[in-house]
Amino acid sequence: MMAGAGANPACKIMTFTPTMEEFKDFNQYLVYMESQGAHRAGLAKVIPPKGWKPRRNYDNIDDFVIQAPIQQMVAGQSGLFTQYNIQKKPLTVQEFRRLANSDMYCTPRYLNYEDLERKYWKNLTFVSPIYGADVSGTLYDEDIEEWNIGHLNSILDVIEEDCGVSIQGVNTPYLYFGMWKTSFSWHTEDMDLYSINYLHFGEPKSWYAIPPEHGKRLERLAIGFFPNSFKSCEAFLRHKMTLISPSVLKKYSIPFDKITQEAGEFMITFPYGYHAGFNHGFNCAESTNFASIRWIDYGKVATQCTCSKDMVKISMDPFVRRFQPDRYQAWTQGKDSCPLDHTLATPSTTPELQSWLQRRRRKAPATTSSLTDYAHDSLPYTMWSESGCQQEKFPDSPNSSSCTQTWTNLEPIPMQCSGADIAANAPPDLKQQNVELEPSKAYVLGQQAGSQEPQEEEFKGQEYYECAKSEHDGSVSDSDSCESGDKGADSSSESSEENAMSDPEYVETGLEPGEVSVHPILYSSELPWRHPLRKPTARAVPSAVKQQAASDDEECATEEEEPETEEWAKPLVHLWQHRKAHLQYEREYNTMAAKTTPHCAVCTLFMPYCQPDNLEERRHDVSTSAATESQGSCSQEASFRSRPLIPEICFAYQEGPCPLNTLLEEDGSSPLVSCNSCCVQVHASCYGVAAHDVGPVWTCDRCVSGDLAAGCCLCNLRGGALKRTSDDRWAHVMCAVGLPEVKFIDVVKRAPIDISAIPVQRYKLKCIYCRNRIKKLSGACIQCSCGRCPTSFHVTCAHAAGVPMEPDDWPYVVFITCHRHQSRSSSAVELEVGQTVISKHKNLRYYSSRVTQVTAHTFYEVMFDDGSFSNDTFPEDIVSRDCAQLGPPEVGEAVQVKWPDGLFYGAKYLGSNTSYMYQVEFEDGSQVLAKREDIYTLDEDLPKKVKGRLSTASSMRFQDAFFTTQGERKRRRTPNSRFQTDYIANISPRTFTRISETRSKAN
Q1: Is residue 158 within 8 Å of 357, Cβ to Cβ?
Q2: Which one in 84, 532, 582, 935 has a CA-CA gap of 20 to 30 Å to 954?
Q3: Which superkingdom (predicted)?
């Protein structure tokens, strides 16, 4: 049927009211809906015939248990938000209803739906609501046949027929108990499937939808606003954590439509239809996924999240073989290239579909699972057959951080507490981690901890199912343990004492200047979910950087003639602005920079130069090369073109839509141009060079003006790429990108630079790198992005000293990490037998110890029946098999796992991995087996938590672990009084969640 191709050209959400006769055949009515063009909007509403009800009444569900409700915490501003999920204790429906209707969580008064929508987006970040999401079960009565979400009889049933597998929430129903402000972020369905949602009772649900033919535009917009998330995972929208308001969509001309679903109405989402929405108050919805013939082509090209092992992936082999037999051979050879046409409707029938339906009719109908079948089970079902289907997981990407849903298993807390009570435990941004405060609270395991709604909510336990026989990658991760102590008796977990500090108390306290609150993250031979919050910097940081502990009271009495001792500052000796301007020194520095990756004086902000140790050698090299060139020209990088490191959104911060940059090719590269006067080399797109000016002979703005003594008004260094400011001074383009309040008035030309919004306090900050080198300080400083760290520095000084800076998600643009806050994992070295280290004793305090043995330990990887994972399960914890005698189970074999809470859980064995374990011996003769991240060498900075628990044994054998005297060791650190008036930039919600996450891991 091709009628749908020309219907509904405006792509508006359509509403259908079928008669009882039409309502009886779900799949045929879907064909009719698409023939009318409903699929072009990506979303459609269906109002059932009068008198039809899926359940006689809902009076007997009050005692139904919502095993894993989650609290939705939202961070962001200006219409761009990121949503995090924190798991709460189980609730009955009656308790959840009471909570939803309480003064804290109830729906505010409103005039109409438009007024309520405004209140939603205005108050999205306040009072985090609780969502009873992903509850396996159905509220349909067993005798209901029409539009029964439990058995829609769509071709998606091929999964269960051919593989004997039921994927919870995908081809089985899920229930969702919502309250005011609970949301589902922008996403398409897993494998771009259809979905159906029925609102059983309660308050309405608002939906937003973007037509499938405009889905790519939303993806490009999201990539621009969240470049760091895209860098970690190209399919980051599948994480279902990104909220973008309608006002932002309008601003960037993204077509969308909205509709409100009332109780007793169905909503259908179509393949590749992005949708989002929120609940108006207490309600209950039921949903699942389904498919049609048209979906098969979508499933073959659906994008996959590559940073997580628990995303749903369905092998398309049985679908193509059964419903597209004429294309099967070409498809298996990778030659079946069929571009998607979002306007085409699904055919009413095909010979293959008819044949499949006839075979199904000859088979006995399957018994429908009802609410009482599995909704009250402690572990939701995952059904398997003896067929060749295997459950597979994506391997961890060694270059990416985890982008799965963030689940923080908190201690049960009273539901009447405010959302602020757990604010400090907010998970980090799009690079998430699974953390747990106390392993003894692992009772949530097997209680829907990893699930998410198929068509709207963001919490489905996502699993990769492969219906064709294939090898397992053997890489799985643990969703409920963060330390080696979680599984072993000797390597003990944190005591309740460590969890005693309240979250609000920590928020008030913040970090002390120069202190680090970082807990080591679990690593194995294959990286698990819990990757570091950010990847280690690509360049090594110079070890000779001046320490931030230098006193502010120190008099800046450094003479100009004093020789420079720190390596990072040697190339800058003649570039400080307090010295006389000399173009030759700038030319030498710029020439050297042009030969260093990324060959651009602007986007090198995100990749500090690797400077040679000896400036004279470099000067000699540069002079030698320059001697062979004409006096007025500079050499240009041989490639002439490369890809800029700075996303376009960094230049268009809080301005209008990013204008099209004609200097950026489709592959993202831009030509390199070099000034024939000062030799500064830049990407044409980074500097805003007009297209007609790109060529072998080009002059920068500063040299065109003839102001050869110009210096940046935002820092104390010369050299680099300068642009005019709005007050007729000069500033580095790099400084303008790094300072959050600075804007480019003309985004395309990258000029003039507007510095009027920089607060006075920022000019008063003192750079830790140049304050002792220059008598008269000037410029505006940036600060470390980690919590309330007051460490400040100029952009160029920090860049020269090797401070790592990287693109961040809008609106924060740049994330800066001072040397004190860099992850110790980036510089961790392997330990040797006999080495003196500091590690945690059984009494939970840290003592000096020696490494006595290094062993490679084998861990088993299992997937629990609720969809959660563990990749550090000890073989002896498999109680259903004597692994010591018989070896590991067969891949896919059902096993019983003993968890630290003493309970046994069903799981599937998926493989094994090897991790190095270190046996350390304390002075009392006791020994502990620990992982590398739980051990600190004498050269490593100790986190604040470890320092607070560092003890000395009464009879010390390892005196070399403690360098200071007893008096010095007990001396309390007094804060510097001059820090009290220093300006501290407002902490961003994303940074706050990063540090809060670090705190939750450390405790």
Answers
A1: no
A2: 935
A3: Eukaryota
